[in-house]
Each structure stands twice: as C-alpha cells, then as structure tokens.
Amino acid sequence: MSATATTPPPGAVERAAGRRVLTGDRPTGRLHLGHYFGTLHNRVRLQDAGAETYLVIADYQVLTDRDTADRLAEHVGDLVLDYLAAGIDPGRTTVFAHSGVPALNQLLLPFLSLVSVAELGRNPTVKDEIAHSRQASVSGLMYTYPAHQAADILFCKADLVPVGQDQLPHLEVTRTIARRFNDRYGPVFPEPGALLSDAPLLPGTDGTKMSKSRGNAIPLAATADETARLIRRATTDADRDITYDPERRPGVSGLLALAALCLGRTPQDIAAEVGTAGAARLKRLVTEAVNEHFAPLRARRAELAADRAAVRTILRDGNARANELADATLREVRAAMGMRYT
Ligand code: TRP
Question: CATH assignment of 212-304?
C-alpha cells in the first residue's frame, strides 16, 4: 500500500464483519475516481470482509438538485453499473432506491416530529448545500433531508455508516433521532456509529477536490482515450522538476497522488522517477497508470452495460429485500407508537 492509500484505520474493515453497514449515493451521473478511492473501494472491502452491506440510491435526495433530477433513470442505471463493475456483489449487498421502498419513506414522518425546525436549519451540511445550490429558492425537502437520511440508515437498523467528514452532521441527526425515539417510545433503534475513512481527498485535474460540478473529474467508466484527454488538460506548472508538494504545487501533486493510488507506490517515489522530465512525461505516466489499473473494471462495466435487463433485475431484487426490512421496521415503529387500531 502506498502512503496515500485510502483506507479506514487499521483493522476497522475486519472488525466490521457481521455488522450491518449502510451507505449510499445520490444518483447524479457516473461515479469518478474520487468516489472510487474515497468510498466505493472501501465498501467492496467491507462487503468482502463479511459485513452485511446495504447501498441506498438516494433518488429522493437528488430532487434538491433540479439539473440532475431530469435524467434520473439514466443516472440510476449508471450508478448500479459502477457499483457492480467495482465489485459490489448483489448477492451480498442489497442495492435499492428510495422510491422503491415506501415504508422507508414513511419513517420520515415520525422522525420529523423528533427534531426541531431550528435543529434542521443549523445543520452545517444543509447550510453548505443551500449556499452552493443554483436554485432560485430553497425547497422544504432541503431541510428535511437529514431526517430522511436517518430513515435510510435506521430502516434496516444499520449500526455502522462509512462516511466522509461532510456527512458527519447527518449521522449526528440520525443518532439524535434514534435516541429520542427510543426514549419516547421504547427501544427500537440502534445508535449507529461512523466509520470515518482517513482517505485524503483525491484532487481533480485542476488540483482542487475532484467533483463533477467543478468539471475536474475523471469518470470511473471513462475510456482510455477520454482519460488521456482529461489528464492532458490537467493544470500543472512551469517547473520541469517534478516534486510532491500539495501546498505549493496542487496540480502536479494531485497527478502524483492519483498515480500513487493506481500503482500502490508513494507520490514521492513517482516524483523521483519522473525527475526533471517535466509535466508532459508525468501526464503520460499517470494516464498509463489509470488506464491500466481500471482496465479490468472498465471491461467488466462494458459487458454489464450490454445487459440493461440484468441491472433492472438487480434493483428489483434489492428493493424487494429492502421492502421486507422496511415493512418490519415500520410495523415495529407503529406498534411502539400505539398506532395499531385493527
Ligand atoms: N447524502 C449522501 C451524499 O450526498 C448520500 C446518502 C443518502 C447517504 N443516504 C445516505 C450516505 C445514508 C450515507 C448514509 O453523498
């Protein structure tokens, strides 16, 4: 493993065996290499280590962003393909969509009664999203989505949630809701813990955090040519001597970090190898490293993409499994709340 390998703390993955783990993504298009090294790769490791894993495709959450909500079916299909290509095994991991699991969504109502408007309004991640949203006004859904995310996590009584730093406020809301529900109605929910990855953020081709909306992302499913084109356009600097210095040389260092992840070496080692050969040489090296590392995944994805019916079956099966759990949890919740009349 290289110095920049994106792993949770030593032993954390192994200790997750037998625990119930839920994570998810908004379906906003193809995943990129930042997603892969930051979270996807670890989800596959958790699955393979014997954790009971659930993946929510958060299609109701994506409604806070009108641009991506326009092509939902395509984005959901792409997300499932990226998961499968990366090694998510639908036999072991339940992949489902919000909209396919009605009882999950119904949990939102009692959950909303347990948090105040003020608490929802001061959630830093919500505030941040409002600040960056390109919408003319802020919808009510924006404020409720941390409580909805609590439903994602608690419907299956997950006890471990692998998240990035930005999602911690949401997990705190989930823990608060679980605690308040249990205090008021009796013990139903676990208070889930975070599995924080110590993954450094993978910079995009301009040296800042890789993100689709910044236009600096390399899609996981990019072709070799597309990858070469994106890396050729990456921002570097005029110094021909290649060194790893994330503070002063974010562009060059981001490329070195990416190559390091693909090659299992340290960025410093790769910098030393390129030496004074300059940015063009570095870019060729990075392109080859990415294309070689992801060739099997991309080939697998292309094969899977040819069979859209299989993708639909996987989602249908995942939704069915999630529905069983959600129905059982909702029955328990209604019983605890005294909502059994017939
Ligand atoms: N909010 C997460 C994101 O924007 C996606 C998500 C939805 C999620 N539900 C979740 C993550 C439950 C972890 C657990 O990436």
Answer: 1.10.240.10
Mutation choice for ligand 1 from 26, 35, 196, CB with most ligand atoms inside 8 A? 26
Which CATH class, in words, describes the domain spanning 5-199+308-336?
alpha beta
Cα 49 to its chain centre, rounded Å, is 19
- Give the integer Cα–Cα distance in Å for 299 and 254: 26
Q: Which atom of ligand 1 is nearest to the CA of 26?
A: 5
The pLDDT value given to residue 198: 65
85 neighbors 297 (Cβ within 8 angstroms): yes
Look at the block and give the residue holding tokens 């490293």. Answer: 289
| Phi/psi at 29 (5° precision) | 125, -170
Q: Band of the pLDDT at 342, cuts 50, 70, 90?
A: confident
Strands (E), the chain: 20-25, 52-57, 93-97, 160-163, 193-196
- Taking the whole predicted model, whether its pTM rises above 0.90 is answered as yes
